[in-house]
Design brief:
With 306 residues, this protein is of the alpha+beta class. It has helices at residues 6-10, 18-32, 41-57, 60-69, 76-88, 118-124, 151-154, 228-233, 293-304; strands spanning 143-149, 158-164, 167-173, 182-185, 201-207, 214-216, 219-227, 235-241, 244-250, 259-262, 279-286.
Amino acid sequence: MAYTDYYKILGISKTASEEDIKKAYRKLARKLHPDLNPNDKEANKKFQQINEANEVLSDPEKRKKYDQYGEDWKNAEQFEKARQSGGGQRTQSENPFADFGGGSDFGGNEFGGGQYSDFFEQMFGSGARNTQTRSTKFRGQDYQASLSLSLRDAAKTHTQTLTVNEKNIRITIPAGVEDGQVIRLKNHGAPGANGGPNGDLYITFRIQPDPDFKRVANDLYITLNIDLYTAVLGGDVMVDGLDGKIKLKVNPETQNGTRTRLKGKGFPVYKKEGAFGDLYVTYHILIPQHLTPQQKDLFNELSKMK
């Protein structure tokens, strides 16, 4: 059998610490465990490989032998015989696999079964296979979902039904969620194995652009068209807010591009009852078109008064 690179299987370097090995193994074990991938032959094969790699690299003595022989692993058995003849033989009562990590959910030999490479068999013996495959509790995998909302929907607390993995989940969406914000629903992920807890569901919100409002944090921005006469003489106009029309007073001689702020008329602040951002209104002055001869005369008169 070809040389098996246990470090590569776990995705770690040869200088990895015991803690690095443990973390890498746990991460892969959660992903590849047979109970979570019952019909995936490739995942089961990889699970056997990471289990074997962990059992070797998590034990200092076995790791030392593996590091020493490398690709020359076929000579390991002869070396062991020579070492044992010198008085270093292990008794049958000794456990060939010490517990990894002292009782955590992902111990050194808590995942087992399957075929081991010839290197593993010849160096440590076939009796080293784990017999506790199904005894460990595994947390279920987390689910990821995306939910699209309009700006106006995101501005109010409401409920929606989300279908994840063919399961309908009714959720309450608080007012004020932002684009890209992620919330977690505990225990709504994949079921655990061997009585372990369910995973979690992570929902990413996508807020669609609005044709009227631009949102920046909790503030809203809108452009309001006003006629030339109102801009020059002043007057009252109506502007759209999230909750309806708002009456706004335009000062005389308002210039094009002038911006005014309506405090507390912006977007609701996430999970802060009664708190809102501001609404910023930018005036866009419309120049009159299709003037009558009389209107043109009046503008000509005004131009002479400059």
